[in-house]
Design brief:
4-stranded antiparallel sheet, about 200 residues, about 20% helix, alpha+beta
Length: about 200
């Protein structure tokens, strides 16, 4: 017997694997993709595709499709200033074999955005997978790096302008996950810190 929605009684509702992130301008993504390809060619591993390059703000994980509007509503309650960041360092995490790009001096607005978003989502009843971890802004460029002692390239500082953040859906495949933007949320120069809207 099926319900009106076509699901079996007691069946788990359809899920979407989602996260909030910053997405770079094409020239930033192109530069980082070139670096990723170069490192993966020399040291092994799976380079992040240009269209998939992003900086995660909060990872949610699996959410019922029917709850996505609630997720968007919670994110739209966040008010935060637009900001620029400068990627100026490459690094390697040996424990999970990830080559990544980061900031030697992350802008305060970036950490404020992540914290405000996490607080808004938690208040709305969503479990934020990385809520208890210290936020370390980074862009994953190569996964499953083979040669952990490979020499890392020099990072030419590159400016990344952020005027919005996005809600993205991740779909796994044998060749790595693909991402699709579900919603966009503008950033504006409202004040020096982020806060939930009182509207």
């Amino acid at each position: 017997m099926c319900s009106e929605s076509g699901q079996q009684p007691g069946a788990r509702p359809e899920q979407a694997r989602v996260f909030f992130a910053l997405w770079p301008q094409p020239e930033v993504a192109r530069y980082l993709a070139d670096v990723a390809d170069s490192v993966a060619t020399r040291a092994g591993g799976r380079a992040t595709r240009q269209e998939s390059i992003h900086l995660t703000l909060t990872f949610i994980g699996d959410v019922a499709i029917e709850r996505l509007p609630d997720l968007e509503r919670a994110a739209r309650a966040v008010r935060c200033e637009a900001f620029d960041l400068t990627l100026d360092r490459f690094g390697l995490w040996r424990h999970n074999r990830i080559f990544h790009a980061g900031c030697s001096v992350p802008p305060a607005a970036l950490a404020a955005l992540s914290a405000a978003l996490t607080a808004a989502l938690s208040a709305a009843g969503f479990a934020v997978a990385d809520a208890r971890r210290t936020f370390i802004p980074h862009v994953t460029l190569v996964r499953k790096l083979v040669a952990l002692n490979a020499e890392l390239p020099e990072c030419e500082p590159i400016a990344w302008s952020n005027r919005q953040f996005v809600l993205a859906r991740s779909t796994p495949s044998p060749h790595g996950s693909s991402y699709r933007t579900i919603a966009e949320f503008p950033l504006a120069r409202v004040r020096s810190t982020c806060a939930k809207s009182r509207d």
